[in-house]
Amino acid sequence: MALCIGLGVALTAMLPLGPTALAQPGDTIPLPEPQGQTLLMQSVDRADYGPLAEQFLTQANPAYCGVASMVMVLNSLAVPAPPAPGYGRYRFWTQENVFESAATRAVLSAEQVARRGMTLQDLRALLASRGLQARAIHGDRLSQAQFRLLLRSNLSQSGDRLLVNYDRKSLGQAGGGHISPVAAYHAASDRVLILDVARYRYPSVWVPLADLWQAIRSTDSSSGLSRGVVVVRRI
Predict the structure, then answer these.
(1) Where in the chain are the domains?
(2) Which CATH superfamily is domain 9-234 in?
(3) pTM
(4) pLDDT at position 27, please?
(5) Cβ(206)–Cβ(193) under 8 Å?
(6) Has 160 been annotated as catalytic?
(7) How far apart are CA 56 and CA 71, in angstroms?
(8) 45 is annotated as an active-site residue
């Protein structure tokens, strides 16, 4: 499952906020750095970047990476939302009101997610409970070429989204299972931009596609299945 806690809060507080401290499997490049910005500007497959960046948010607690990612997807696809408490007549999805429907709570409650995180199939089912078309693909079912094709197809059009459930260690980061949206692909360097929802810990970062492919093929000890991706679109 994706707990998003990694090695624990105490160790997290001691680590630098960027990925450079532990990054080794591939040459990760934080988006805020000039080179990261250059990769974004050169990317052809970046249709999802604008809508997702506009709705970017930090996960509300260490286990809510999947929830924050789901809320970003719902808002960026303009899925009709309930009122947001404290904002009067304005309606948008939050990490609280996303659990208001009985259909969503039937999949997982907010308390369950806060306690144990979620698996790839949990993420798919939660998105589907909000009326989205969601397809989970386990990483061990994808060749590297198939993963690249899936990324490029998804990121070249703005009507769908792609969430990745991956093992941080495969990217040279501290921690375990994590979930975040991907926003762009840079063909010349074969890198993928992850908008990391744990931004108190790591910035959005460009990672080698080969490393991310390995990271989604890792086994989730909770389900006994590989991690993977969820492809999302409005019905």
Answers:
(1) 9-234
(2) Phytochelatin synthase, N-terminal domain (3.90.70.30)
(3) 0.89
(4) 73
(5) yes
(6) no
(7) 9
(8) no
